[in-house]
Amino acid sequence: MNRDTFTETIRAFKHRTPFRPFTVVTVGGNRHEVDHPDTLAVNDGLALLAAPGGVPVIFDHDGVSEIIGDLSARGRKRRTNG
After folding, report:
1. Which pLDDT value is given to residue 1?
2. For the chain, does the N or the C end have fewer beta carbons within 10 angstroms?
3. Burial class, 16, CB count within 10 angstroms (exposed 0-12 / middle 13-18 / buried 19+)
């Protein structure tokens, strides 16, 4: 996924109103659920997630294969593939 698309997509999911959880899938197959907007920081193609238990997870635009969640108001799921 390119840097700008990654950053814009993560920000769009993070700033939805009301916020709804979404999942970041890495190229290695790991899945990280973002269940609250304050657990995630993103800038310039890099993201830091405070996972459950306060465990930090760092991923970047090259390491993410897809972002799974609903960006529409109608409840459809959108997959953003890299």
Report:
1. 84
2. C
3. middle
